[in-house]
Each structure stands twice: as structure tokens, then as C-alpha cells.
From TrEMBL:
Its cofactor is Mg(2+). Keywords: Hydrolase, Magnesium, Metal-binding. This is PAP-specific phosphatase, mitochondrial. Pfam families: Inositol_P. Belongs to the inositol monophosphatase superfamily. It comes from Anisodus acutangulus. One of its GO terms (biological process) is sulfate assimilation. One of its GO terms (molecular function) is 3'(2'),5'-bisphosphate nucleotidase activity. The lineage of its organism: Eukaryota, Viridiplantae, Streptophyta, Embryophyta, Tracheophyta. Mg(2+) binds at residues 113, 172, 174-175, 344.
Length: 407
């Protein structure tokens, strides 16, 4: 197996002027998971990395489910300085993934959403230790200090990358945190991707309360029949496709169902497409609103209308919908004051691509995950992000180009 390398400088707090480089080292530790992968190892160059990613994301979602059951009355719902809701689960997931992937692949850095400053200032480290301890393989090695270091391993300023292609993990601890804190009916996703020499090569998304069956007119994530929620795991590997498998009873028992290969939908006409957009944006704020009115009821779609699906909270859920054929298009506009984070798009991008779809900015250019040459935490798409089934991509790019004046 080829030796992977990455260009990254880790800066010591005491000696920030002395960066160093190191080759990617693998520890081939046996990874036990309740999920075997849907393709043979000989076809997947990064099989072991994907196997490890599936295992840790599965346990991270178990952590989320456990926290969710107990947070309502014990102060576990928190709020960061930027007013974004965040919970012990966010920090717990990041610590767990950081600890486990550093154990298996110690030279691959992590780019993730959180840092430990909030936990330190609010004396909440012990709460994170409690939720991580029974989910990690490290047992008694999990201490306040190790948790703080694990979280900060993925935080801002943990690594400084050079302009050359790099190798690193990208983690979204909980995409859709607002959904997580709303209650059991709202969707949220744990997502992990691996970038190797500047290219996303694998991804894992897991949504514990994904609703398996819904109609076009339903609002995804707000059904009352919680018992029908099977949950879903989605995995993708470059050249091997995107696959899903149902979970059973919110991760308590392994699902007897087999893997299903994902394909984007076959919609060829924009008018017949199923769209999804961010909760923070309105259809009227997007350029296609000058051509089509959005309707949420599939029975009332007429000429000049498109069907707009709702999907509670977060970007990755929308990627999951497009990759699985539930939606045809996900379009996200870029506001002047917004900053687009890599973890909101990385794992979704490979899942959609390997399912036959396409992801780009509004000009049709691929998302540049190395645009932030220093920390690899930001992307700067022109106009916004467009995710489609591929067949509709060029048509919608043309429509956007001719209707930007309505924004």
C-alpha cells in the first residue's frame, strides 16, 4: 500500500516559529464494527481508513443518542458566544473521534468545528469525560487533560497547512445542532471525511433518526411516528460508489438489512425537480425565484412551480437527501456576512459525487477545500453552493447566471 504524505506544520505553543513535517503513519489496529463495508478491500485503497471511520462515527452517534436522552433537565443544552446552540454531545463527538483516529492514524491531523475554550471557561470538561469514557477504546486513559487535548487537536490554530495538497480528516461533530436540541423529531448528522493530497477520498454520514419512508409532500424530520425512524448510515469511497444501510431502533441493535447502492434521481426537467434549501434562507432570496414559485405541496404543483422539500437543520442532511435520490437539488446562497465552513460540505460532496451527482459553486467551479491555505477551515464559493443530480446542473447554472439580478 502506498505511503501517504501530507504537508502540514504543527506549531508548539511555546515555539510557534519551528514548524515540522512528518509522513503519514498508519497503525494497523484491528477495527471492530457492527458494519462490514459493502465492497471488498481489494477495490478500496482507503478501506482501513473507511472501516475505522464507520466504527467511530457509529459510536459517536450512540453518544449523541445517550446525551439526547438525558440533556433536558441537567444543563446539557448550552450556547456558544456566537449564539449557536451547542451541547455536550458536540464536544463529546469531537473528542471521541479525535482520540480514536489519532490512536489509529497518529500523523493525520483533524480539522473540526469546536475548541476547548468554552468547556474550560464553564467547567464542563467532566461532563464530556463522562459521555466519552464508555464509547472509547481508551478506557481509563480518558482524563480531563486528554479530552481537552483531543478537542483542541481539531480546533482552530491546531495545524497550519502549507499551499501544497495535504492529508487530513474533516469532522462535523453534529451537523444540525439546532435540530438536535429541538427534540427527537428533528434530524441531525455526524459526518467525517478524509482528504488525501487535496482530494476527498472517503466519507461517512450517520443520521440516527432518519425517516425511511416519506411522501414528496411530507416535511422531512417532523413526523410524529418516532417508532418508524430507522436511522441511516451513508458511506462513500472514491471509485466505489455511495452506499446506505438502515439502522435499527436508533442504534441499539444491528439492522438486518443489507447495504443499498445510492443513485441520484433521474429528473431531467427543472420544473419536475425536488428542491431543498437552508432553513436560514428563503426561496425569494435565491436567483431561481425569478423563474419559479416554490410550493411545498406536491399535489398543487403547476406550470412555473417547483416542489420545495423541508429538511430540518444542517447542510449534510440535504446532501444525504440528494445522494439518496430523495431530492434533486440543494441550493445554498452565500450571504455577504456568512462564512462557509468545510465541515458543512466535505463529506456530503463525495457522497453526492459517488452517487452520480455534482457539487459546485454558482459558476460551476468545484468547491476548493484548500482555499483556506492556512487552516483548511473555510471555503469561498462564488455566489453559493449548488448540489444536483448532475443532469440538472448545467441548466440550473445557466438559470442562476441569467437571474442573479433578482438577488
Amino acid at each position: 500500500m502506498d505511503l501517504l504524505r501530507y504537508s502540514v506544520s504543527r506549531f508548539s505553543a511555546a515555539h510557534p516559529q519551528h514548524p515540522f513535517r512528518t509522513p503519514l503513519r498508519r497503525r494497523f489496529v484491528a477495527v471492530r464494527s457492527s458494519f462490514s463495508l459493502p465492497f471488498p478491500e481489494r477495490k478500496a485503497k482507503y478501506y482501513r481508513e473507511l472501516e475505522a471511520a464507520v466504527h467511530v462515527v457509529e459510536r459517536a452517534c450512540r453518544l449523541c443518542v445517550d446525551v439526547k436522552k438525558s440533556f433536558s433537565s441537567d444543563g446539557r443544552i448550552l450556547e456558544k458566544n456566537d449564539q449557536t446552540p451547542v451541547t455536550i454531545a458536540d464536544f463529546g463527538v469531537q473528542a471521541l473521534v479525535s482520540l480514536e483516529m489519532n490512536r489509529l492514524f497518529p500523523s493525520i491531523p483533524l480539522v473540526a468545528e469546536e475548541d476547548s475554550a468554552f468547556l474550560r471557561s464553564n467547567n464542563l470538561v467532566g461532563s464530556v469525560v463522562d459521555v466519552v469514557k464508555d464509547k472509547t477504546t481508551l478506557g481509563d486513559e480518558v482524563t480531563d487533560d486528554s479530552i481537552l487535548k483531543a478537542i483542541d487537536r481539531g480546533g482552530k490554530d491546531a495545524c497550519v497547512f502549507g499551499p501544497k495538497p495535504a492529508t487530513y480528516w474533516i469532522l462535523d461533530p453534529i451537523d444540525g445542532t439546532r435540530g438536535f436540541v429541538r427534540g427527537s423529531e428533528a434530524l441531525y448528522v455526524v459526518g467525517l471525511a478524509l482528504v488525501v493530497e487535496g482530494k476527498i477520498v472517503l466519507g461517512v454520514m450517520l443520521c440516527p433518526n432518519w425517516h425511511e419512508d416519506f411522501s414528496d409532500s411530507s416535511i422531512i424530520g417532523v413526523q410524529e411516528n418516532i417508532s418508524s425512524r430507522s436511522g441511516i448510515i451513508m458511506v462513500s469511497h472514491v471509485g466505489c460508489g455511495t452506499w446506505t444501510k438502515r439502522l435499527s431502533d436508533i442504534l441499539t441493535i444491528e439492522s438486518p438489512h443489507t447495504w443499498t447502492r445510492c443513485s441520484v434521481d433521474s429528473c431531467q426537467m427543472v420544473e419536475g425537480a425536488r428542491f431543498t434549501i437552508p432553513e436560514s434562507q428563503t426561496w425569494k432570496s435565491l436567483p431561481l425565484s425569478g423563474l419559479f414559485d416554490a410550493k411545498t405541496d406536491s399535489e398543487n404543483i403547476g406550470e412555473g412551480n417547483i416542489l420545495l422539500l423541508s429538511a430540518c437543520c444542517g447542510s449534510l442532511c440535504k446532501y444525504l437527501m440528494v445522494a439518496s435520490g430523495r431530492a434533486s437539488v440543494y441550493i445554498q446562497g452565500k450571504k455577504a456576512t456568512s462564512i462557509i465552513k468545510v465541515w458543512d460540505h466535505a463529506v456530503g460532496t463525495i457522497c453526492v459525487h459517488e452517487a452520480g451527482g455534482k457539487v459546485s459553486d454558482w459558476e460551476g467551479s468545484s468547491l476548493d477545500f484548500a482555499a483556506d491555505q492556512t487552516e483548511r477551515r473555510l471555503i469561498f464559493p462564488s455566489g453559493g453552493v449548488l448540489v444536483t443530480n448532475g443532469s440538472l446542473h448545467s441548466k440550473i447554472i445557466g438559470m442562476i447566471s441569467s437571474n442573479l439580478s433578482v438577488l
